[in-house]
């Protein structure tokens, strides 16, 4: 899913979070797969580096599930690429997954502070 590195370098995403991060990234604007991976790496400060072997199957799964749709467009470099756009179902899923993530991380924080 994510390249593993030594301490302080990119590491694994928590199981089930990749799709949430993709949805959040696409909520900002439509992007091609490489753009999604780059944005996740940049916003995470380099902590997460998503590899294509995880990203592309996740995007396909999300498209089949109706959370994203795709269309072919020209990139900034004038090349053809598949761009992914968030659907209404994807926005709803993002809200639900974000709320669940916040509940889970708050519970983990309470356990760690106990």
Helical amount among residues, as a percent range?
40-55%
Provide the succession of SSEs.
HEHHEEH
The count of helical stretches stands at 4
Distance between the termini: 32 Å
Largest sheet at a glance? 3 strands, antiparallel
C-alpha-based Rg, rounded: 15 Å
Provide the low-confidence segments as ranges: 1-7
Task: Write structural notes for this entry.
The protein has 114 residues and is an alpha+beta fold. It is 54% helix and 14% strand. The chain contains four helices and three strands; from the N terminus they run αβααββα. Strands 1-3-2 form a three-stranded antiparallel β-sheet. The longest helix is centred in the C-terminal third of the chain and has 26 residues. The radius of gyration is 15 Å and the shape is globular.
Give a topology summary.
Elements: H1 18-28, E1 31-32, H2 33-43, H3 52-64, E2 68-74, E3 80-86, H4 88-113
Antiparallel strand pairs: 1-3, 2-3
Question: Any descriptors?
Answer:
114 residues, alpha+beta, 3-stranded antiparallel beta sheet, globular, disordered N terminus
């Amino acid at each position: 899913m994510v390249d593993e590195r030594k301490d302080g370098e990119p590491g694994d995403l928590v199981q089930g979070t990749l799709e949430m991060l993709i949805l959040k990234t696409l909520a900002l604007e439509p992007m091609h797969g490489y753009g999604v991976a780059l944005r996740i790496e940049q916003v995470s400060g380099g902590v997460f580096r998503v590899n294509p072997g995880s990203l592309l199957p996740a995007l396909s799964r999300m498209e089949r599930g109706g959370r994203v749709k795709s269309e072919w467009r020209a990139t900034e470099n004038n090349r053809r690429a598949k761009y992914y756009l968030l659907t209404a179902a994807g926005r709803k899923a993002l809200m639900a997954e974000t709320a669940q993530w916040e509940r889970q991380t708050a519970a983990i924080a309470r356990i760690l502070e106990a």
